[in-house]
Amino acid sequence: MSLSVEQERQRAPGDEALLSVAGLRREFGGVWAVADATFGLRRGAITSLIGPNGAGKSTVVGIVGGAIAPSAGRVVFDGADITGLPPHQRARIGLVRTYQLSSEFGRLTVLENLLVARPGQHGERIRTLLYGKRSWRRQEAELVDQARVLLDRFAMSGMEDEYAGNLSGGQKRLLEIMRALMCQPKLLLLDEPMAGVNPTLAQKIEGYLAGLAAEGLTMLLVEHELGLVERLSESVIVMAQGKVIATGTMPELRARPEVLHAYLAG
Amino acid sequence: MNAAFTFYATTILVYLGVDILAVWSLNLQYGVAGIYNFAWIMFQAVGAYTAGVLTLGPATGNGGFQQYILGLRLPEPLPLLAAGVVSGALALVVGIVALRRLRTDYQAMVMLVISVIAVLVIENVTGLFNGPAGLSLVPQPFGSLPLSSLGYQWFYVALTAVVCLIVYLFVHRVTSSPLGRALRATRDNEDAAQALGKDVVRLRLFVFVLGGAIAGISGAVLIQFIGAWSPGSWAYVETLVVLTAIIVGGTGNNAGVMLGALLVPVAFNEATRFIPQFGRPGLVDALQWIVIGLLALAFLWFWPRGIIPERRRRFPGTPAVSAQLADPGEVA
Question: Which residue has the higher pLDDT, A224 or B185?
Fold first, then answer.
């Protein structure tokens, strides 16, 4: 059953919701990029965020990820209000995002891109410098093993020593997803993961995301390709002109005139 | 080998040591962490002044012809260590202002402005470090050792080498550790690093302070060797020489930037010193600056990674194979 925006707003963030946002607003120079966004994400499910260009989807992802401060509203993650929390602290509690544009660490190898992703490593602490390698080498070896398992799973084992900057656009997408997984996320925000990816690789990425969902990873997917959204998502949130105008499954949303109007009228 | 040449060679070796400290310092900030510190020379200068006024006796000595603060006549290595601490502390203050809220290009502008302001302040507040005339007659450390003039030159070369070795061990530990990897990640993509849990401001502040401290130590080693330091030694363009050495040698590579220190501030400057003067007075010096600028541009255009590029880090063991796969859920 689909919930109307009003019903969604009235529903208290229940135990099921890993993330809930309420009354989110963000103004840029007099323009409301996000005028009113309230929704929740169920644990263990893929929820998609769709809408025409300029609907405010990326701004919402930016606010949830912590890169953009909201003008009003709040963000609750795993029971804690994280509205004012900086991005790096959000990542440390399991809220991890990917970007619309490739964001690889170009002068690090593929394997290093994965190793650097795990927050709170012993070897990143300044005092560790005084103790030497022994204090962080074991953790590093474990991370290398985990990274190689991921590389194998995403069919990129042969590329571990390649500079990330030399990868193709699609491979960079895969790397970004792997890197986010190395962060051990509770919630993964995927901002247009298929942008600029060829159809064959897009199909592969879709398979990987479905696999991760089957393992119980909660994801918020921002995507324009509605067929993909329908195949992957349990629930879909529709935004237009900065507001959440509907939530539900894709078949339900297709029957909603306001959704059709938003897409047809932009 | 005659005495004059030995004197010249040992002097060059000390300069090389100072330049190596300089490039390691700026490489940590620019090459590893991506901070455009165009005020680098200021941190070296503050270290030099600090060591100078801590090594000199009271300003009333020598007929009071110099005006400066402190004049504590502290024994070595206290002035050297204090130079690192004071420059590091200044880097912390500058870093808090410039690195917390500003992005790289704005940081570069702020640093350049700070560097220019610093020279003007030191020139005009003459009671601090003797204004435009600068400090002179700074005693050499361990000057009471029973060494000949040449013997002391070699002694100072060894002292510089020991300082370089200690600094290298620390710099290498930073750059080869996961901390160094996190710094390189923030250099390559600040937003993505933040989104993966890296406290970018804290990381940058750390490396800025560490680089500042090393710059200060390099200034201390230099002033204690040449015995003088004035605003003419640290115009903002001096930072560009160190930056060019890093670009030529290999940005991000400790060995590469050492080579850069040998090639640019030492070999290039020394080689061009013997060019006969021509044209109007000062033309050859001006051409030196132009060539250094062109050298940086040429490398950025044709060999952006430098002569010895940043090392590709490989890890022992072999890539995983499907048969050995752990439960992917453990990773996810």
Answer: B185
Q: Does residue B310 belong to the interface with chain A, where contact is any CB pair within 8 Å? A: yes
Interchain pair A67, B320: CB under 8 A: no
Q: A151 to chain B: which residues are within 8 Å by CB?
A: 319-320
Asked if A108 and B192 come within 8 Å (Cβ–Cβ), the reply is: no
Give the one of B194, B196, B319 whose C-beta lies nearest to A160's C-beta. B319
Query: pLDDT of B213-252, one tens digit each?
Result: 999 999 999 999 999 999 988 888 899 999 999 999 999 9
CA distance B261 to chain A (A): 23
Q: Give the one of B177, B319, B330 whose C-beta lies nearest to A152's C-beta.
A: B319
Smallest CA–CA separation between B316 and chain A, in Å? 9
What Rg value do the Cα atoms of chain B yield, rounded? 22
Beta A95-97 vs A80-81: how paired, if at all? unpaired
Residues A56, A37 contacting (CB under 8 angstroms): yes
pLDDT digits (tens, 9 = 90+) for A64-76: 999 999 999 999 9
Radius of gyration of chain A (CA): 19
Q: Do B310 and A107 touch (CB under 8 A)?
A: yes
**B195 part of contact set with chain A, CB < 8 Å:** yes
Contact assignment for A183 to B196 by CB distance below 8 Å = yes
Quick one: pLDDT at residue A85?
93
Q: Does the pLDDT at position B86 exceed 60?
A: yes
> Which chain A residue shows the shortest CA-CA distance from B206?
A126
Cα A37 to Cα A46: distance, rounded to the nearest angstrom: 18
